[in-house]
Amino acid sequence: MSRERTDTAGSSSSFGLRERSHTNGSMDMILESGAPTNMNSPAATPKRSSRVLSGSPVATGPAASSSYLKHWVDWVQRQPVPAFVLPPLKRFLVGFSADHDDTRTVMCIRGLDRVVFGTAAAADCVVLMGIQPPRYLWYMLSGAFCDVFQLLVDITLHLTIFPNDAALCWMSSFVLSIVARHTSHRYLVFGDYVPSYWQSLGRMYAGYSISIVLSTIFNYLITTGVAKVSHYVAYIFTLLWTGLANYFILKRLWKMGGPTPPGVPPTTNARTSSSSSSAAP
To answer: Model confidence over 237-248: pLDDT tens digits?
Structure first.
C-alpha cells in the first residue's frame, strides 16, 4: 500500500517546501509557487559556484602584459628624488626655495605614462627630477640609440657584403636605420604618427632622401678622394653633420598633413569665403 506524506512540518517545510514520495522511488520538490521539480533530473542538481572552485580569474596574454607594464610605470613615477640630491637641485627648480625648510617631494620622473599609454612624446610631457629637458636633447638621445643600431648594421655589411666600400656600407645602413629612427623619434621627440604610421614613414624616407644622397657622396669623397680616411673615421665625420641636418628636416616634416595647431586659424580660399559671404542673406 502506497503511503503519502502530507505533513508540511519538518525541515523541508521550514524552507517553504513540501516533499512527496511516489511508488517509483522518485521524489518531487514542490515550491510554494506550485511548480514541481524532479530531484532526479540534472536540472535540479545543485551547482557549485565556479568562483569558489576556481578563484578569481588570472589575466593572461596582452592584458597581463599591459597590466604589468602599467604597474611598472606607476612604480617608476612614484620614486622620489634621493634626499642628498634634492638640496642642490632646488636651486634649478622653479617655485622651490634652496633652504632646508622646503621639504616638498620631487619625483624622479613624471609624465612617462602619457608616452607609454598615450600619443605624446617624451619631449612634450616628461619631467626629470623637476626639470623638463629641451626637445633637441631628446633628439640627441634618440639619435644616439639609433646611431648604435646603424653602426651594428654597418659593421655587419662591412664584414659580409661590402668589405671594401665604405660609402655603400654607410648608405645601406642609413636606409635600414630609418625605420628604427622613425619609431624612436615618435616616442622621444615628436609624438604620434601623422596622419598614420605608413604615411609618416614614407614622408620620413622622402625627407631623408636628400640627406642620404649627400652624405653618401661626402663619405665616398673622403674615403676614396684626397683625404682617404679610414672606413669608420669617415663614418663618424659623416654622422656628425647629417644628425644636425636631419633634426631640422624632421621638425618641419613630422606634423605635415596633420590637424591645425591650436591658435592657428585654418587656411581658407579667400575667393570662396568672399563669395559665400556675399551670397548669404
So the answer is: 999 889 888 888
